[in-house]
Amino acid sequence: MTAQTLTADNLRSISTRRPGHRREPQRLTSLGTLVLLLGAFLPMLDFFIVNVALPTIDSTLHASTPMLELVVAGYGVAFAVSLVVGGRLGDAMGRRRMFMIGMLGFTLTSLLCGIAPSIGVLVAARILQGVSAAMLQPQVLATFQATLEGQARSRAIGMYAATGGIAVVLGQLLGGVLLNADLAGSSWRPIFLVNVPFGIAGLLLARRVVPTSRSPHPAAVDIPGTALLAAAIVTLLVPLTEGPALHWPVWSWLVLATAPVFAAAFVTVERRAERRGTTPLVPPSLVRLATVRHGLVLAVPFFLGFGAFMFVFALTVQDGLHHDALGSGLAITPMAVAFFTGSLLAARLYERFGTRLLAAGFALQALGLVGLLTVIGDQWPHVSLVALAPGLAVAGFGQSLGLGALFRTVLAGVPQRLAGIGSGVLVTVQQGSVALGVASLGTLFVSLSAHNMRTAFLVVVGIQAGFAVLLALASPRRAAAPSVDVVVEAA
């Protein structure tokens, strides 16, 4: 099979083939959509719910600081490394089948995390949980792409964006509630065990309400590309996560120096694979599509700043303003409510304003973050959580609009036959950037907060506000082209 470069001309030619032929996708019901969204919600929730529990895990399992960081980083790295493979396997084996396999694995590994007798077992279970999540989550967007059309697809993608954002924000709130409840003296364990009943329910329902779909031309797993991508992500995130806790030993610098080497080798291997006529893990011609390339460039700083903010805000409220885990979760509620509200409006607003919604959302996010900086700067250390609410609400609303438009911008250029690969690439960038944000800006915050937490918050959140301003300036100012849905439907 020869490789086909995915240019605009190619896509237009696809839409003209066999004019009388149109493949009707299986119907995805509202219940099926909810089950798929559950599969997106649980992995995202689990990335952040553990943050508020780390001190308690330390006291019960007597973990070292590097091992505690691996509880977070092990999950995130395994998740990011395996996502594209999960999308490729869904294309080949069937997305519903891989969704169920991923849900089963995620449920079992959540149970293992909840009953882990030692920190070593917990870290190992978290790594396996990340791999299971990577098998599960890419099937959600890929199924939406394959089984929905027009406004129904746009609404589903909007709900996906809302689900992800709410999961990230509510992770800390739910974690605080469960820790404070201390159910039957179980301490931190319910933050993992809560996944089990939802996972079982999702597994039972998926067979009945999620339609089957797969790529008409599934590609084999790109083993060299997968190995090099994994090496690039691991050698970047592990030193950034573990290096500060270990005072940057020589090995951390040596490993970090290999990350760009692996990244360059990955790009070279993928280009050669496509020239040979095989389908690489991340087709370079897919990334060269204008909507995909531009969207991914915007996604990296957005998710990097978002991941860092959630980490920094929780530590600031608990360690700086001296609230407990539940108070930290309640403090973020205005952002959650505003994010959810904005996500419900994003689909309709995108239909009207197109990619211009990106700039509007990022500008509102910047405005909200500046409001937070002003309150922290003026009122520290006697900061009322109520005083933080307006800035959080404006930032959350802006993030929801920007995120909803960002997902639509990236996925608009992905043909149906590459739905699994496209969604896998997008979520890999999302999870990798979130983890990188925690590892880089989170590390900067911890270092600065040892001297002055107010200054640490102002610096790190100021950097995120700067990202938001740059994103608003760099966002396209044109309406979305409606022809992409037609092309995808006719492919």
TrEMBL record:
InterPro entries noted in UniProt: MFS, MFS_dom, MFS_trans_sf
Membrane topology: Multi-pass membrane protein
Transmembrane segments: 31-54, 66-86, 98-121, 127-148, 160-181, 187-206, 218-238, 250-269, 296-317, 329-350, 357-377, 383-406, 418-444, 456-474
Localization annotation: Cell membrane
Top-level taxon of the source organism: Bacteria
Pfam family, one: MFS_1
Polar residues bias: start-end ranges: 1-16
Stretches assigned to the Major facilitator superfamily (MFS) profile domain: 32-479
Location, primary (coarse class): membrane
Keyword terms: Membrane, Transmembrane, Transmembrane helix
UniProt region (Disordered), positions on chain: 1-23
Name by which UniProt lists this protein: MFS transporter
Organism annotation: Jatrophihabitans cynanchi
